[in-house]
User: What shape does this take?
Amino acid sequence: MDIQLNSDGLKQAREFVRAHKYDWYSDWTPPTGAKEEEFIKATGTNLKAYSKWFLGTNRAQKKGKDKYEYIYGDFEKVYLSALLDIEDKVRQDAKNDKDAAEILDAVQELRELIYADLMQGAQKVYKQLKQGGLSGGCNGCCDCY
Assistant: This one.
């Protein structure tokens, strides 16, 4: 497999999850070409910001958008369903491959961060409910209110 882990993409994904900028319940639809071009234009033409939205870098491609593989978000937040999609694609693309294992480990780490954050939010809500209600409302991790 000519695709290796994009450590800058993983770092950004971690930061977004820790900042609660993720969607754990919506179906994943990759951004359209027009949305990609809009993002690239808004962030500069060197593709640095664009590249951080991918967990893989294709070693066979020297430059351009085709260098990046396994997009995990819509340029605003991380999607759990995108991570699940990446996991399926990587498993299909390469078996017993060191680079594939690194990407799968990254996906697993991100999923665990999301699940832990969701559990922490659920525990806070449960504790507040047990104490007589949600004063101040929901913590914003979902659209339950």
Q: What stands out?
A: DSSP finds five helices and five strands in the chain. Residues 14 and 110 are 7 Å apart (CA to CA). The chain has one domain: 3-118. The two ends are 45 Å apart (CA to CA).
